[in-house]
Amino acid sequence: xxxxxxxxxxxxxxxxxxxxxxxxxxxxxxxxxxxxxxxxxxxxxxxxxxxxxxxxxxxxxxxxxxxxxxxxxxxxxxxxxxxxxxxxxxxxxxxxxxxxxxxxxxxxxxxxxxxxxxxxxxxxxxxxxxxxxxxxxxxxxxxxxxxxxxxxxxxxxxxxxxxxxxxxxxxxxxxxxxxxxxxxxxxxxxxxxxxxxxxxxxxxxxxxxxxxxxxxxxxxxxxxxxxxxxxxxxxxxxxxxxxxxxxxxxxxxxxxxxxxxxxxxxxxxxxxxxxxxxxxxxxxxxxxxxxxxxxxxxxxxxxxxxxxxxxxxxxxxxxxxxxxxxxxxxxxxxxxxxxxxxxxxxxxxxxxxxxxxxxxxxxxxxxx
Length: 368
What we know:
alpha+beta, four-stranded mixed beta sheet
């Protein structure tokens, strides 16, 4: 475990007293609390250090031992239990987070049984992703149960949660440190149903359906989201938002990367030494590509502005044409004879046996 110094963690001097220690603790606890640094392991560790430092320095007896002998002196002396006690620590945090988050830290707060927002995947063809489309589809959303007003309890009657005793949070002890987390039984509300609502089976909502129409912009890609206002779940008469997550089907010929399109163009081997001009299909029009003699396999040619439109602007990516040199899988006798004549016409340049012997002799010289 990382070593740290209590005074340094709280940012105070060794002469600091009562209110100064508490003020420093409040400041540091607010800065590093996990609710304000979600997913940060570093902040979580700092928060633990801040709590440990305050618990020791707020207790005159523990502080005296620490000042004289350090952390090792606290072992076996109930080290870490602050004189103000855990109740005071969490009371301090409560007043801090009331102002920061608007709800009482360590106090019960109303929790909805489901999110007002709704997300669903929508599948598009490659053509629809390039040019946009008008789509109509059905959605299943949640509508708050009127019988229990979303509580999941018969006639809306609730009782104090037995696990958290109505606080909305439970506490976990780790050594001499104690931490609060949302009660898993009541989800922080501090209340549970005395009896489940018969209308919604205690879920707090009823299933509803609706038909939705949406205009999808040109250029949308897999993973992109389209937000439709007030088409999500309903809570207290208000609808949340619907988020459509696009899933685009692959195309047989084009490969998309961002706003660029890639097209593999087959080129028969016999035309490579000659060069040629070919018609190239793009999604929007036919293009002309002049291929130079002795083009390389996988060589690329770029057509500016012939790629995919950016959904929120008029800009387009590029079309990149990549050459793929192809060869016959079989030849007839006449073709064999013609190829042999062509090969012989190149003389020594086409004599693979002599070229290979020269290479072998050169490599042998490395070891002589």
